[in-house]
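Input structure tokens:
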């Protein structure tokens, strides 16, 4: 619970405690005598029933969580085209699928790697699922290099193959490692390396970072299904509930 919530809770107590509301109007407009009266009422009420403070703070915290969720829902609606219908994004699963999940990920993120086989299971089991891939390199220079390599690989129709390789990788995606994986997948390394530094590659990463800020995404992975944002790795059952909700 934040200090701001606690302060707001203390102010709200004046409205919750019998007798205090009549003395206050607005806390900032009380006279010294009125403030003293309110404080005395609060002290006495809290002494008799400490649950008053707990309930007030819980109510405020719930209201703040609800507002954050509502703001996120509005942000998803406002950015729907960029999230769900950007023709430049790589797609896994069924490109024409009726159910769409957007996945923000970092190629170095351990939780993203943990989610990877679960998403693969979902795609194999539910053939109408379309997964939009959003590179979000937030874990340092090697993350940025990996995202650049993935976007460049898309121009050689190998985004999915390189993505799978990086998700299974258990070492840093340094340039020598990226080249090794590219060679293994028979990618044209010279072309890939050139495309990694292309302005369009940079612009796409910046768009994804901007989207993440607009949606208040705090880390990876982050999934968007319909108007719901799900932070962190989830299990297959949760993913299936999300897809079922979209179908209905």
């Amino acid at each position: 619970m934040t200090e701001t919530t606690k302060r707001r809770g203390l102010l709200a107590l004046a409205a919750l405690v019998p007798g205090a509301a009549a003395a206050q109007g607005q806390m900032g407009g009380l006279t010294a005598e009125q403030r003293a009266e309110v404080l005395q009422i609060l002290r006495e009420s809290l002494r008799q029933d400490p649950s008053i403070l707990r309930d007030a703070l819980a109510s405020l915290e719930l209201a703040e969580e609800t507002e954050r969720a509502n703001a996120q829902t509005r942000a998803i609606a406002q950015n729907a085209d960029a999230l769900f219908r950007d023709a430049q994004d790589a797609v896994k699963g069924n490109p024409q699928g009726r159910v769409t999940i957007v996945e923000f990920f970092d190629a170095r993120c351990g939780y993203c790697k943990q989610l990877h086989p679960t998403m693969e299971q979902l795609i194999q089991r539910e053939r109408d699922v379309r997964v939009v891939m959003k590179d979000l390199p937030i874990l340092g220079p090697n993350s940025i290099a990996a995202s650049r390599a993935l976007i460049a690989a898309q121009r050689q129709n190998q985004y999915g193959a390189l993505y799978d390789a990086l998700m299974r990788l258990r070492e840093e995606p340094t340039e020598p490692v990226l080249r090794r994986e590219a060679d293994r997948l028979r990618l044209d390394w010279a072309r890939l390396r050139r495309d990694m530094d292309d302005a369009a590659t940079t612009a796409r990463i910046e768009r994804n970072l901007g989207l993440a800020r607009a949606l208040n995404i705090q880390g990876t992975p982050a999934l968007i299904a319909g108007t719901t944002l799900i932070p962190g790795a989830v299990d297959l059952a949760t993913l299936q509930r999300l897809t079922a909700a979209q179908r209905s």
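The first strand starts at residue 90 and ends at 93. The chain has twelve helices and five strands.
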